TrEMBL record:
Organism: Tabrizicola piscis
Swiss-Prot/TrEMBL GO biological process terms: regulation of DNA-templated transcription; RNA methylation
Protein name from the UniProt record: Methyltransferase domain-containing protein
Residues at the active site: C342 (nucleophile)
Keyword list, A-Z: Methyltransferase, RNA-binding, S-adenosyl-L-methionine, Transferase
PROSITE patterns: NOL1_NOP2_SUN (PS01153), SAM_MT_RSMB_NOP (PS51686)
Residues in SAM-dependent MTase RsmB/NOP-type domain copies: 122-407
Residues the entry annotates as binding S-adenosyl-L-methionine: C226, A227, A228, P229, G230, G231, K232, D247, D273, D289
Top-level taxon of origin: Bacteria
Family: Belongs to the class I-like SAM-binding methyltransferase superfamily. RsmB/NOP family.
Keyword RNA-binding among record annotations: yes
Length: 407
């Protein structure tokens, strides 16, 4: 068998699940695989999703009719690997081996061999374009050039960002202007210096800013609403706040618990639907990191454009408004709230803020100085709009919207 067949065959199976059954990349556990093969399979599947349409365009010229999905995915993977500079010989041999070993695909091994032998010298592929439901509102909000720049950033595998605790050991990396540590080639996270001691946690540089915007002080009573898997809970607990973390998902809250245990930090954890739950006393500050389309995280979740179709957005916008209205009612007089979403859709950010201000005329939006935050990231209404094409030469950042609201 050709080298690297296990990881490649697994990548093809992952692509079959995503493109054939609408499964998410995060649903793949791969328990029977060696960690290195698992990581490689996920990386390969992600690379294909980041260049799927350009790869298909190239393949179309060499195919008279479209082969079954698995064979298409084998071809896509091979074309993307060759375009990224992998030696064609090994890639083609592995592709032929995978097709030959499948009962339903074996008869197409000759076709795969012939198509790929004609494609051994492929130029780098252009980035995958976002689907219309994401692209259109983004072009309207940010302009065509910005969306093209966002797509270019999303075509590359993102770096790994860590939030650091002062005085703890951390790996070598680039300290970003906002204070996060960026690792270009991280390897196994649990093997990095300082992991076991809980000196840091994985958190995109953009995702680290809502808690910074809220600026919790030691001893303040703070609510982290929609808290799991807990990056912001850890930040606020590390800042000395008395944090109550609420999330509807038990399994996701178990990850908050594990993160707190590893870092030795503490918070009160509540698994509850925030549309029903009531606190027993008001809070000094609330961070609402509301459920959203997650369109800002495509660079980390390249499967998202293929498994979502935008039909959930209207329901999410309504849920965000209901959560925000409830949370505002749980603030002490003069208390503050950060509303945040990892979305690039204005309806889940700028529009949500405008609608909240219209519903609650007494509220004020505040801008605060934060190291590394550039002046033109602030919107006219006082929100902070972060886009993946910011810091593009460093690997970008997740798309986010956040606003600090004073009651
Ligand atoms: C964007 S994620 C939160 C990420 C988290 N703040 C962090 O930094 O790790 C949104 C969360 O909202 C939770 N959620 C969705 N609907 C909810 C509800 N009605 N009540 C409470 N939590 C909810 C989801 O389970 C999910 O964990």
């Amino acid at each position: 068998m050709a080298e690297g067949v296990t990881a490649r065959a697994t990548a093809v199976a992952i692509l079959d699940g995503i493109l054939g059954e609408g499964r998410m990349l995060s649903e793949f556990s791969g328990p029977d695989l060696a960690p290195a093969d698992r990581a490689r399979a996920l990386r390969l599947a992600g690379s294909v999703l980041r260049h799927l349409e350009p790869a298909d365009k190239l393949l179309e010229r060499h195919l008279r009719k479209s082969p079954p999905l698995t064979v298409r995915n084998v071809l896509r993977l091979a074309v993307v690997e060759v375009a990224q500079g992998a030696p064609a010989h090994g890639v083609v041999n592995a592709a032929v081996d995978i097709v030959r070993s499948g009962k339903r695909t074996a008869h197409l091994a000759g076709l795969v061999n012939a198509v790929l032998r004609a494609l051994t010298d492929v130029a780098p592929l252009p980035p995958q374009k976002l689907p219309r439901w994401m692209r259109q509102p983004m072009v309207h909000a940010y302009g065509r050039d910005a969306v093209t720049a966002i797509e270019a950033v999303q075509a590359a595998e993102p770096p790994l960002d860590l939030s650091l605790r002062a005085g703890f050991e951390a790996p070598e990396g680039e300290v970003l202007p906002t204070g996060s540590l960026r690792l270009a080639t991280p390897g196994q996270v649990s093997g990095l210096p300082g992991y076991a001691a809980g000196g840091w946690w994985v958190q995109d540089a953009a995702a680290a800013l809502p808690a910074r915007l809220l600026g919790t002080q030691p001893g303040e009573r703070v609510l982290d609403l929609c808290a799991a898997p807990g990056g912001k809970t850890l930040q606020m607990a590390a800042a000395g706040a008395d944090v109550t973390a609420v999330d509807i998902s038990g399994p996701r809250m178990a990850r908050v618990e594990a993160n707190l245990a590893r870092t030795g930090l503490a918070a009160h954890l509540v698994v509850a639907d925030a549309l029903i739950w009531e606190p027993d006393a008001p809070f000094d500050a609330i961070l609402l990191d509301a459920p959203c389309s997650a369109t800002g995280t495509v660079r980390r979740h390249p499967d998202l454009p293929f498994v979502k179709d935008g039909s959930e957005v209207a329901g999410l916008v309504e849920l965000q408004a209901r959560l925000l209205d409830r949370a505002l009612g749980w603030l002490k007089p003069g208390g503050r709230l950060v509303f945040a979403t990892c979305s690039l859709l204005p309806d889940e950010g700028e529009g949500q803020l405008a609608a909240a201000l219209a519903r609650h005329p007494g509220l004020a939006v505040e801008r605060v100085e934060m190291a590394g935050v550039e002046a033109d990231w602030w919107t006219e209404a006082g929100g902070l709009r972060l886009r993946p094409d910011y810091w593009a030469d460093r690997g970008g950042m997740d798309g986010f919207f956040m606003a600090l609201i004073r009651a």
